[in-house]
Amino acid sequence: MTAYSILDLAPVPEGSTPADALANSVDLAQHAEQWGYTRYWFAEHHNSTGIASAATSIMIGHVAGKTNTIRVGAGGIMLPNHAPLMVAEQFGTLATLYPDRIDLGLGRAPGTDMATARALRRIMQQADTFPEDVVELMGYFEPLTEGQRIKAIPGAGTRVPVYMLGSSLFGAQLAAHLGLPYAFASHFAPDALDDALHVYRSNFQPGQIEKPYFMLAANVFAADTDDEGKRLRTSMQQAFLNLRTGKPGPLPRPVDDASLIATPDQLAMVNHALRVTAVGGPDRVASQLNALLERYQPDEMILTGMIHDHEARKTSFRIAAEVLSDHAGAAQAGVGAG
Question: Can you say how many angstroms the Cα of residue 122 is from the centroid of all Cα atoms in its chain?
Answer without folding.
Answer: 26
